[in-house]
Amino acid sequence: MKQADRYSRSIAVLKLVLPLGALGLLSSLFLVARDIDPSQAISNAPVDVAELAREPRISGANYAGVTDDGAALTIAASTARADPDATLRLTLTDMRATLETPDGEVTQINAGLGVLDRAAGRVEWRDDVQVTAAQGYALNAAQLFGLLDDTRLWSDQPVLVQGPVGEIRAGQFALQLAEGGARTYVMLFSGGVNLLYDGAE
């Protein structure tokens, strides 16, 4: 009988002590916890929320299409921002494009900035434009244009080209389908062409 009374008293004490102990632990956690300053957390965030609200953008933008003459054009960009006045016009950063013509030739185009205008049916590359064309040609230009429905690239500004025959400097450049119905593509240089011939080639 005494053992039963002792057991009952122990249970009663535990029912009182355990909840009080739990409350004590919780109160100590709140006392020790560091205060969080929400304004400081926002100011240190790597994303400018106000800028994103003004200029919505998407990451990892991609475009793929086929021209009327059968060339495949793909464009990838790190970010794309829509023009508020023209929804089909996108400003792109870190552009990487590939143009593959039906004859199997591949042209790579890289640029820091650019514009994809689907309403106008054209694309623009600018900011250190680098073009790697077929047959070992590497072109540098400040600006380059292209069409979405026709295989044509061109620049109205001076270009520097390194190729199998040497160095070419020209005021204008174009890559397009050859005239006369042949399904071949040619590079055209104009506007004061200078060739520094590499006799070793």
Keywords for this entry:
twelve-stranded antiparallel beta sheet, alpha+beta, 51% strand, 201 residues, 3 helices
Strand and helix map with partners:
Elements: H1 2-32, H2 38-43, H3 49-54, E1 57-66, E2 72-83, E3 86-100, E4 106-117, E5 122-133, E6 137-147, E7 152-155, E8 159-163, E9 166-170, E10 172-177, E11 185-190, E12 194-197
Antiparallel strand pairs: 1-2, 2-3, 3-4, 4-5, 5-6, 6-7, 6-8, 7-10, 8-9, 9-12, 10-11
Number of β-strand runs: 12
CATH class: Mainly Beta
SSE topology string: HHHEEEEEEEEEEEE
Biggest sheet architecture: 12 strands, antiparallel
Q: What is the SS-derived class? A: alpha+beta
Q: Identify the overall geometry.
A: elongated
- Stretches where pLDDT is under 50 for at least 5 consecutive residues are 25-36, 40-47
Can you identify the CATH superfamily?
Lipopolysaccharide (LPS) transport protein A like domain
* Overall mean confidence score, pLDDT: 80
Task: Using the coordinates shown, work out and report the CATH topology.
Answer: lipopolysaccharide transport protein A fold
Keywords: Membrane, Transmembrane, Transmembrane helix
InterPro entries: LipoPS_assembly_LptC-rel
Transmembrane segments: 12-33
Protein name: Lipopolysaccharide export system protein LptC
